[in-house]
Write a structure and sequence with these properties.
The chain has no helices and 11 strands. By secondary structure, it is mainly β. The N and C termini lie far apart (about 40 Å).
C-alpha cells in the first residue's frame, strides 16, 4: 500500500504563488500516476492535474492550465504542484492521490488547505 502526505498549503494574496508537495511512501513501485485534486467548500472534489510516474506525461484541468505546473521527483518519491497567478476561486483543500493502473484513484492524502485572498 502507498501512503501520501501533502504539505505546502497556506494563505496567499491573489496573483501570488504557492508550491504544494506530496511525499509517497510504502509500495511506491506500484505507482502509475500521481495527481492533485481539490475541494472547495460546498463543492464536489475536482481534478486539477496529474503526472504519469514513469513516463512523466502531464495533464491539467482547463481551469488551471497555464498557471499550475505539476512535476515529479522519482528519486524522492515526490510530486509537486507549482501554483502561480492564484485566484480566489483556487481556494480549496488540495489532495494528493495515487493510481496503480486503470482509472481508479485508490490512495489519498489528508489534504492541505490553500486560501487565496482577494
Amino acid at each position: 500500500q502507498v501512503q501520501l502526505v501533502e504539505s505546502g498549503g497556506g494563505l496567499v494574496q491573489a496573483g501570488g504563488s504557492l508550491r504544494l508537495s506530496c511525499a509517497a511512501s510504502g509500495r511506491t513501485f506500484s505507482l502509475y500516476r500521481l495527481g492533485w485534486f481539490r475541494q472547495a467548500p460546498g463543492k464536489d472534489r475536482e481534478f486539477v492535474s496529474a503526472v504519469f510516474w514513469r513516463g512523466g506525461e502531464t495533464y491539467y484541468s482547463e481551469s488551471v492550465k497555464g498557471r499550475f505546473t505539476i512535476s515529479r521527483d522519482n528519486a524522492e518519491n515526490s510530486v509537486y504542484l507549482q501554483m502561480n497567478s492564484l485566484k480566489p476561486e483556487d481556494t480549496a483543500v488540495y489532495y494528493c492521490a495515487s493510481n496503480s493502473g486503470g482509472s481508479i484513484w485508490d490512495t489519498w492524502g489528508l489534504g492541505t488547505q490553500v486560501t487565496v485572498s482577494s
